[in-house]
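User: Second chain of the day. Same drill as before.
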Amino acid sequence: MTIFIPTPLRPFANGQDSIEVTAPTVAEALGELTRAHPGLRKHLFTGEGKLRAFVNLYLNDEDVRYLPAKEETPVTATDTLSIIPSIAGGYSELAVPADLPSTHDI
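Assistant: Same format as last time:
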């Protein structure tokens, strides 16, 4: 299967944007990935070996958290796994410079 690596994690995967692994489940695919690229482990997993809360996984286009078997979901060679880190942020009028019009003026 192909695992897609997000831009912020590519330095820990030798700059690669995708990596091919052979594994029977999502969990084992991640295991193969982190064995081949150990620098990724601390970014994907907690010290207890649990997937970090801010790491989202999509098997093909399905959120792994909502699949019945979750990380134990079987995979095939033609599947894709996308690693999507959560991004925090938002908009606040306090952050808009005073010389710019507010959204109320537009």
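The first helix runs from residue 26 to 36.

User: Great, on to the next one.
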